[in-house]
Structures are given as structure tokens and as C-alpha cells.
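Case study: Methyl-accepting chemotaxis protein 4.
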Amino acid sequence: MATNIIAHMKSSPSTQLSNWRLLGTIPRRLTLMARIMFSSAGTLNRIDAFVDSRRPFSTTDPTDPTVMGKRISERVTNSLTKARQTTEQAVVSVGNHISSLFDLANENNVAATGSLCRVIGGGASINCSIDTDDSIAELLENQRRSIDLFVQKTQQFCMHHERMAADSLASFEEMKKSIAKIEKIAKNSHVLAINAQIESARLGDKGQAMSVVGSQMGTFSDEIQTVNENIKQSVCVVDKAMQQFREGASDMKNELDSFSSQVMNEVGKVETRSREISDSLARTLDEITSSNEKLMTHSQIALSELQFQDPLSQDLMRTAYDIQKLQSLIETGLCDDTDLADIDPAVGHDGTLERESGEVELF
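Here is what the predicted structure looks like once written out:
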């Protein structure tokens, strides 16, 4: 429809008026002014008397009835022609404005639908023909999935390190047991060294070898004790660090669980609010669309109301023609043409007033 309106508005005024057509079924012709003015028998008798009494020759005397009648006829004809042209131009101008309102309402519907699609995406009551991957609903859903994935990955990372810490602590416990055994062996070796030295002293020269063994055993015991003490201290430090690491991983996991719940709760609130906004915008779009459709309907009705120009233009054209013909009849006294003015196809459409709104066709 909008394309037809634009094509129609580019044509000439007369063509536009002839193209404004309604498909209604209430045609009605307006009675010609000239026929009303000169149809009675008394009027015709007065015209005949005037023709009989006219002068047989033409003058330029302004008081001459023939000259005055011609001047009046020309002025009335010119006035009727000017009135017809003025009304044609006015109707075309109003039609152009109404067509612009029609196009504007249609464009507003398209723009409002596109804007709503970009904001909230498509829905059951919204037909979106554009890509809505960047709508608020899609962005919120993508954000929720990203946060959920991040929390899952972080939780897996914390659980992995928590297991590593637990395994390390278990190994440290085994190392502590081994250190305790080594410490026990060192103590036994130290006791053995003392016993060897006692036995060496008791045997005298024969116990010299035993003395050497006892001395070496004492040295070995002392070295084992020193090394074992260093290992024990190192293990204690690492064990303490692993304990702290395990506690930190556990705390981080708990914080992530709390953070995840909080974020999901906030995202849920945002999604709820987004749906409320979407519903509100959808209702607003329906109201805008309904208003624009009413505007389009009333624009068509207004265009149909402009159809008065068709019979009006025809009557003005025929009246001017009949006045000229009447003037010729008065001047010559001859009636060589008995046909009255018919519909002029160059003016309007068919000379009928049709008002079936909603069925107007502009082409």
C-alpha cells in the first residue's frame, strides 16, 4: 500500500484525482448547477424573450447586454476554472500529507519492532526478522553460562589441589613414621656404641677392635640423629605449609560455593527484572502498533473523504462548459449542439461520490 501511495503522489494533480478510487457501492451524481438554474419553463421563456429582443449587430458598448453578458460569462467561467484548480491542488496536497502520515506510521511499526527485538529478543508475540544474539536476554543467558562454567572450573581446580594436599599430608605422615623409626635406630645404635666401649674397656687390649667399632657406631648414631633432626624439621615446615594450603583450598572452595550461589541469585534477579521489562516493552509495542494501525486506518478514511473532489471537479467543469454554451446561444440565437456536457475523463474518476472507507485504492 505504501508503495502505491508514493507512486500515486508522483503523478500530476489531475491524474492523482482520477486515480483516487473507492470500491464502494453508493454512487451518486451531483446535479449540475446550470441545469438547476435553467431547467424551469419560466426561465426558458425569459431566455427566449431575451434572445428575441437582442440587437442584430454586435457592439463594444459596455452597457450593451450582449457585451455585459459575455464579460460576466467569462468571469464566471474563469472563477469556476480557478476554483476547480484550487480544490484539486488542495486535495492533492492534503492527500500527500495523509500519505506521509500513513508511511510514517508504517515505518514506526517496523522501527519499534526492530528496537524491541534488539533489546529483549524474539518471543511468542514478537516476530523478529533480525539477528537478536546481542539482546539483553541473550547477553544475560551468556553471562550466566560463563559464570557457571567459571565456578565449575575453579571448584574443580580447588578440589584437585585439595586432593594433592591430602595426599601430601598422608606422605608426610609416613615420613614422620619413618623418621621416628630412624630416630629409634639411632638411639639403639648409640646404646650399642656405649655397650661396645664398655666391653672394649673390660677386655683391655683384646677389646681394641671392639673399641673402634663402638666409636664408629657412636659417630654413626650421632650423624643419623643430626640428619634425622634436620629431616624432621623440614618435614614439619612442609607439613605445616601443606596444612595451610589444604585449609586455604577448602576455604576458597567454600567461598566459591557462596560466591556462585550469590551470583546465580543476582543473575536470577536480573533475569526476572529483564523479563518484567520485556513484558512492559512488549505491551508498549502493542500499544504503539495499535495506535499506528489506527492512524493508518484513519489515513485511509481521510483519503476516502477526499473523493468529494471527483464529482465537484466534474460539476465545475460541466458548469463552466454550460455557461459558455449558454453565452453562445444568447449571442447567436442558434442551437446547433443539443448535447449537454458529459463526464471529462481527464478530471477526477467517474464523477460519483463514493465513501466506502477502507476500500480506497491509490494506484
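For the exam, be able to explain this: The first strand starts at residue 21 and ends at 22.
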